[in-house]
Design a protein that fits this description.
The chain has about 170 residues and is an alpha+beta fold. Helix content is about 30%, strand content about 35%. The protein has one domain: Bacterial Protein-export protein SecB (Roll). The protein has 4 helices and 6 strands.
């Protein structure tokens, strides 16, 4: 039997389906410090580990967006820094056909979720090379972090009507 094609191949659909693709994942910046030097290995106490997380987003041309996951881990003993490691794990992502709200959510949830394992591996590898055991940072629920940030922003600024632009 012959199938009939009801669409004209020369006609482009008015609204293409949203498209999201990873173009590249790369290490943008890395810093590691051990201010205590060899003294860090002689301390019997377990260091207190603090983690700071942030995201930077830069829209580039042609529907490309650079997302940078900034992860800073600091270990201290008796208010002295044992080690400090800062990682900027970046990714280049292609977006097409997303409305502003969905784009914002994907940039702040899916992109960091993709980048986090790379940053975690970099941190563990650098710490190991620096003579420290790996941290084995637990996974982060970026969806929950995003929802909390949206709630906090809504509470501080009052609920405003979100934009519905389309990202191409």
């Amino acid at each position: 039997m012959t199938e009939e094609n009801t669409t004209n191949p020369g006609e482009a659909s008015e609204q293409a389906a949203p498209n999201f693709a990873i173009q590249r994942v790369y290490l943008k910046d890395l810093s590691f410090e051990t201010p205590m030097g060899v003294e860090a290995f002689l301390k019997p106490k377990q260091p207190k580990i603090m983690q700071d997380l942030n995201i930077q987003v830069s829209q580039l041309n042609d529907g490309l967006t650079e997302v940078v996951l900034l992860l800073t881990v600091t270990a201290t003993v008796d208010s002295r820094t044992v080690f400090l490691i800062e990682v900027k794990q970046a990714g280049l992502f292609a977006f097409q056909g997303f409305d502003r709200n969905v784009y914002t959510q994907v940039v702040n949830t899916a992109c960091p979720q993709i980048l986090f394992p790379y940053a975690r591996e970099t941190i563990d590898s650098v710490l190991n090379r620096g003579g420290f055991p790996p941290l084995m940072l637990p996974p982060i629920n970026f969806d929950a972090v995003f929802v909390q940030a949206v709630r906090q922003q809504a509470e501080s600024t009052g609920a405003a009507e979100p934009a519905t632009d389309t990202i191409n």
